[in-house]
Known about the structure:
Layout: H1 3-15, H2 19-27, H3 30-38, E1 54-59, E2 65-71, E3 75-80, H4 91-96, E4 102-107, H5 124-137, E5 143-148, H6 150-161, H7 163-169, E6 170-176, H8 188-199, H9 203-207, H10 210-217, H11 227-239, H12 242-250, E7 268-273, H13 281-290, E8 295-299, H14 306-309, H15 311-324
Helix pairs in contact: 1-2, 1-8, 5-6, 8-12, 10-11
Amino acid sequence: MSPGRRVLKVAGVTAGVAGGVAASVYGLQRGALIALRRRPDPDAGDLGQLEFDEALRLPSNDGGSIYTVSRGAGVPMLFSHGVTISSRVWVKQFRDLPDAGVRVMAFDHRGHGESTIGTSGHSVANLAADLRIVVEGLDLRDAILVGHSMGGVAVQAFALEHPDVLAERVRGIVLLSTLAKTSVSASRQLRWLAERVTSSFDLPRLMGRPNLGVLFARVGFGRSPRASWVELNREMLASCDSSTARDATAALLGLDLTRELPRLDVPTLVIGGTSDVITPPAESRRLAEVIPGARLVLLAGAGHNIMLERTEEFHALVLGFARGLGLLPATAGAA
């Protein structure tokens, strides 16, 4: 494969907005869009803004701010979202998990949603630093951290860069539809080419076009998604600032945590979907192989946004993980 074609594929895997995504979109026919909108949708009208009990804005270490929300009482479970979206993606978790004895918390990453960026911009180190600010600012103890896509990178980086805080405040981590390494991380030339691809791709502007935006947002799901899931994804992507979409994506291109992850010492659950074209199942397998004692679950037919499309299975997995850590009673049911 030529370097240019390889970069297009990698950009889709890393950011979910370039080559692999475009290829999938052009493979969809107009009939697929019609079928999506005609499919029965029990979630229609129920995926609005998050319902929360408390909102806090925490100062970052470089003049920005981190917006956090929480709901319920019980086992603290902190959710970290992916690149170019926001904490709205956890709408079903905020709706259901408090009834299962979980204090559900989420935050918008810098430059996303209601959070502001700060002077030092986007980097993997800042993902880790911001997550530490949230964990300490919310005074979490015996917490479970759940990271999706870029949010999973944040959880990994935090665990590696701040092991003392991890040991004091975190009981386990869940890595959902994420990765530890990109295929361009070892090549300066390929990273440069990938940056050129992502910098020329204005994702929010594209997502602002309803029909084309829906087709692109559809790529984040596996088999037979509901229109409400895809529209929520499109709305979040369209609302992301263009500079954040570009720079936060570029910050991930050199990612390679695989040499450091074998020293990770925390119970870990890795969840992926077999139909995920953004962070394919091979990435979940890689994580489970390099993290000592990690448990791997691959959901057949699931895409990238498992929290929306396979909600009951996802809740059963995270609640079972909490029970296994002794944080929930063995009789606690799934949400």
